[in-house]
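FAQ: What does the model actually see?

It sees only this:
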Amino acid sequence: EHRDRCENADGKNANDMEDLNHAMEKAAAEITRLTGEGGRLGGEIDLLETDIAATTTNMEERLSLRNTEEAEFKQALLDDSNSVQLIHKAIASMKEFYKRNKIDFAFVAKKAKQEPKYTENPDKAPET
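And it is asked to produce this:
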């Protein structure tokens, strides 16, 4: 009876050792697989970080360009506004000049707005 128990215990120990060896092999295979996947994912992460850096640089360049163009646009608006004011001042000065010299300003303005003279029918589109 003691011998049977010892043999059974030896058999159980052998089975347990076999199960543990199999579990260790399985764990080693899983470690190898995960290590390979970790390397692959590390490569993907590096690629994505490179893409993110390029996108960030591109965004900074676009923002700088946008800010430059906005400043140029605002300056152009200011220049246009100043030009309109200068034109109004010039018109006022011309009116004053014509008034002082007793020249009919309306005649000059009308003369500048003469209608074009058509050699053909004005209602007909030109032929191309």
